[in-house]
Amino acid sequence: MTDQPRNRLIRPSRRSFLRAGAGIGAAALASPYVIGSARAQSPVAGKTIGFSQSYATDEWLRAQREDVHGTAEKKGLEVITTDARENPAQEIRNLEDLAVRGVDAVIMITYYPEAVGPGVQALNRRGIPVIVMSSALNEGQDYAAHLAADTYGTAQQAGAYYIDRMGGAGKSVHIMGRPGSLVSQARGNGWKDALNEVPEMEIVAEAIANYSRSEALQMMEDFLRANQEIDGVYCHNDNMAKGALQAIEEAERQDEMFVTGFDGIAVETFQMIKSGRLAGTFVYPTFGAEAVEVASRVMQGQDVPKEIIFPSPMINQDNIDQFYDAEANKRLVPEVDLEALGL
């Protein structure tokens, strides 16, 4: 990379975070996504960016893809989108292919930072700037900017919520995401570290459900049969929270316990919070719109923050209207706040 960005840490305020977001656009997968409505005034119109995902079946990842494409459309960018379908070797090939194509920048999210180094290094050798979302890359892999959230800190806040809601004594179930995911590890460790500070906060069961709604449903059915007393269910994403909630409601035990998730993306999640079925979720921004904004600045040779950390507020019945338009039944997605990104 010719222009080395300053190693600044930007932490947007919660207020500015609520203003951040992106327009939703059409999605494409695996083949080039060509933008057809470029704005003439955009200084990056006509450039091509690569967008690499480890997989794209999760609702959060689908929303991320829509945010990337929607913001790219506004800027007149062509997007080549790849999906590795949970195969690290394919992800390496996808990144290497983007390097061969000579794209102007690459936006990527990976669940396999230990494995995909050769693909990232191929981009580095070609001088193609890399914008990373969510999990960080390993050492030896260069990037222009990393957009993430303080996941461990948010998980500790989630732990504090459980402690407070249970009055310092209670029994919880822990339903985890993918074991190799750094984000999943942070969501678990932060929450458990908080609970471990209070002796009467007990974790009676925990299991890996791989961010899957159906797996969480099955896990929760087993936990309900094995435990006569459960006060709260902490899930690493909203998909699993909805699966756990289904099992609880089918067992008619919803009055005994509450459930929380992570992500805060899907309309169905917002509906459940609005109605009181789901206690809440902790926002995990998609970073998609902001990553396109950062990539645009990098492609123009402008300085950008090396690390951009977003807050993750809890969405509950008290503030659901800031994130969900119940009348229109849609996710609220405000304009991207460039000032909050340090741009």
Which descriptors would you attach to this protein?
10 helices; 36% helix; elongated; Rossmann fold; 2 domains; disordered N terminus; 343 residues; eight-stranded mixed beta sheet; alpha/beta; six-stranded mixed beta sheet
Provide the gyration radius in Å.
20 Å
What is the mean predicted local confidence, pLDDT?
88
- Tell me the number of strands: 16
Number of helices: 10
Please mark out the parts with pLDDT under 50 across 5 or more consecutive residues, or reply none.
1-40
Might you state the CATH topology name of the largest domain? Answer: Rossmann fold
Strand proportion, as a percent range, falls in 15-25%
Helical residue percent band: 25-40%
Q: For this structure, what is the CATH class of the largest domain? A: Alpha Beta
Shape: elongated
CATH superfamily of the largest domain: Response regulator
Q: What is the CATH architecture descriptor of the largest domain?
A: 3-Layer(aba) Sandwich
Can you offer a commentary on this structure?
The protein has 343 residues and is an alpha/beta fold. It has 2 domains: 9-149 and 284-312, Rossmann fold (3-Layer(aba) Sandwich); 151-283, Rossmann fold (3-Layer(aba) Sandwich). 36% of the residues lie in helices and 20% in strands. The protein is built from 10 helices and 16 strands. It has helices at residues 14-19, 59-75, 88-101, 117-125, 151-165, 182-196, 213-226, 238-250, 267-275, 288-299, and strands at residues 9-10, 32-33, 48-53, 78-83, 105-109, 130-133, 145-149, 170-176, 201-208, 232-235, 258-263, 280-283, 307-310, 314-315, 324-325, 330-331. It has an 8-stranded mixed beta sheet, sandwiched between helices. The chain has a 6-stranded mixed beta sheet with strand order 9-8-10-11-12-14, sandwiched between helices. The protein has a two-stranded antiparallel ribbon with strand order 15-16. The longest helix has 17 residues, at 59-75. The chain is elongated, with a radius of gyration of 20 Å. It starts with 8 loop residues before the first strand and ends in a 12-residue tail after the last strand.
